[in-house]
């Protein structure tokens, strides 16, 4: 069953808790008694015994919107209390409110805006924030507000302050679509929404400037990209998605950059799609992507 | 959680039935009451409403072997009766008994034997049947009986009769590892075990002899393979797995054959692996492959 | 060496002829004597002996534009005459003039326009022709003329007549970017430029309407696309590029359509890129793609 | 044209030199005058101007074996002297003499032996050297000598001495097929043949023990392998081939190890195939793989 159906009566329940017998039964019995039909159920345990249990359940419940507050309370008081469950109910019909941050390159930003216009992503892009004005003209046709907030090392604090004023409370997700400024731990702790980032990946990794030049000189046969949640450790948060493309000595540095951009936009789009579909559970420094594993 | 753990106490429950509310709850409650801990649960509905519901559940139950007969009876009388469920319990610790049928080419046969020797496949290869003696020497080091049963159009009936005498009741699965003789509907109906076949696949398809020569002349850029369950319609049963490899004008027909063999052995091995792990449910002319979708 | 360098002094020589000893020597000697430095040379013979020989040579020659007419004449009179060579010199600095024909879906069209704006494709899009007005707003920001020419079975002749008036003599390539009308042999013979088409591909192939629905019902594990030159045989011209993406039972028909669109735009973009870089030689019903094989 | 044709009269010429105009013409003219027909020619320049030029030429020359010594001398005295060319002529009909070194795991070793028996690789495996006796039984059916030379840190010098006595002068290539002992710079400088190694690759890289466990904990979505020439810098020689396979949270560490082994044997086999076909030129710390780029 698709979980991208944006039916007003489709709900999603994500939960995780210490693993022990009876959780699936308790949760599914709760939903059945509430009048819901389970459309899809995925679960994962980190260990055969004694690990963390995670579950994503998609259900159909006529009158979901009206019923959700009550279900939340009742689930908290009963099943969640008994099994020590962290959980969240969401409605498929309520798209995530997303802010996209970009700099000068357009490939990741435009791919997200274009997919969203096609109806591929369950999100509402509430604003694009950029530290450069360059992409304003390209964003405008999509009808999305473009906010230019200059940001350099010297004015980082003020820039982040302005960004936070726009973002806090207004977004469910921040996507860094090749935003080329450092995100401080302070910003991360205050923004109040998860952040997804994209970066190129090579085997082996290359440190420093001009990574595609280095990749060319090293003769790598694969060029890749990684989308991950942003944590305080730079480029080292939980990986959501990765992919690579084959390259050879016949590709110039310019070709590598072009192919790298293709992988980046594909990988980031998938990561955002899956996040918006509530498919992703974070566990320690990894992700579980339900239904796309 | 892995479902390949060959623990004596790991059970698998596969079921399908008309979709309606309450199935997941009923099944998981049954297992919990039986003392089982659900290790992994995958399900799929063919339609949002009114379709077919399928589920694969992996559970841990101390003393499984002894308890299984009772569980079978009780599940049939209660949950299965109520929801009109077709089901089957299996034990992860009991490898499938598999016969492999081959002709002259070794790539699919040897890859299965080699993977099995490494412990990658939950199967016990009880015999290799071939219509040619050529591969006997290669099978021998694996300690598997090799049975040569000549088979041509003229002696098909006698050949199938001999094959059936060996197979019936002795195997849980028959793998056609590039077995180049026709399987008759009569054989299929009497063999008493599912059969998996592998064949090459091209875009577009090529009819007739020398498909790699045709693919070369047509300048295809991909060469592929498809593993499927055998039905009465030749090469048209439910698809289990497919894959392709890139080729170009620099590849000779001989190169295409080599690359095609690589894809074939990889695709067939995955299909057999998934079958042996009870991951596959057949529904009409398609398959659902739980946990590898 | 890159062959996408749009240097005014970079030339390309594509040729094919009956294979016999001495061609490479004669051609390279000609270029060397003309003062050119060979930057890249790819060749291919269809058979070890007695087949067709094809070669793509990239060379650097100061003052190329001024020298080209003379080289053309001299090469024709000497090397080409001796070896019975069909050839064509092109300048890397002169982008191909391209018309894109589309209908209502935007993915292939926009991907080409966007890549072209980024400078990824050596082409100049001189017009977009559509049988529907729907995509006009999306094309406008790219600064490319959008021409709406209604076309149905009943008015096909008039529609093709209007299209030909726009295209003949004005374009080096016509790209069918999901243009959903039949192209008649008459149009093809009169348009005066090669045409590239894109279509979805499945294993097995599906005839008739709603191919993604059929693919879903058949449970295919791969969804693909094929870009090819248009010939009089529908969807059966020389294949330029193909690719696939993995799918599973967890994907809805809508997901398949989305993933299919991703493959289509990627495959079509690569085909157009390679054509514009003069990498492709057509031979019988196949293509040789130099440097990307 | 295939370059794997093991025709007695097929020769290969590999060369590299400082780039300047006229090389292709001079080389092809030399071959034509020698009576050879150029079957295939690939070349690569590291820079548009002033870089290194490399070329691989496959040619057909009746009576090649007898003619080769003379050609070698004449080419050295004329073309090579004029253009400062490093070159080597080889005969396609003379398979490379290869030694394979392994430890306890069989996947890379057996895949090479099996492909060689099928005639896929232009090599003659003259011996298998292992620091453990475990794989002797598996090597025996292939008719290849298995030599057990214990090797640990304490007896490294003696072990390498014994290995060198077997290898020096007897092999054209040494393949490390999961040989789990350190190769010393001294060994490398004395062995007198290039060495190819295979190792797993992850994004990001994992240092230390149990890399698949680390990859599992990190939640990587790709598992890969890299084949490279051995240099004094551990695991950092020129990359020949790389590939990856997708994994997810549903895969156990055991699954990752199995999938990693699949990628390793595929990548190593391709690297060895290409080396034996004289497709690979090393340049600084990278490789050019002609015809498979």
TrEMBL record, chains A, B, C, D:
It catalyses: (6R)-10-formyltetrahydrofolate + H2O = (6S)-5,6,7,8-tetrahydrofolate + formate + H(+). SUPFAM superfamilies: ACT-like, Formyltransferase. Coiled coil: none annotated. Its EC number is 3.5.1.10. InterPro entries: ACT-like_dom_sf, ACT_dom, Formyl-FH4-Hydrolase_C, Formyl_transf_N, Formyl_transf_N_sf, PurU, PurU_ACT. The keyword Hydrolase applies. The keyword Hydrolase applies. GO terms for biological process: 'de novo' IMP biosynthetic process; one-carbon metabolic process. The active site is at 235. It comes from the Bacteria. Pathway: Purine metabolism; IMP biosynthesis via de novo pathway; formate from 10-formyl-5,6,7,8-tetrahydrofolate: step 1/1. Signal peptide: none annotated. Keywords: Hydrolase, One-carbon metabolism, Purine biosynthesis. GO terms for molecular function: formyltetrahydrofolate deformylase activity. Belongs to the PurU family. Catalyzes the hydrolysis of 10-formyltetrahydrofolate (formyl-FH4) to formate and tetrahydrofolate (FH4). This is Formyltetrahydrofolate deformylase. It comes from Mycolicibacterium fallax (Mycobacterium fallax). The lineage of its organism: Bacteria, Bacillati, Actinomycetota, Actinomycetes, Mycobacteriales. The gene is purU.
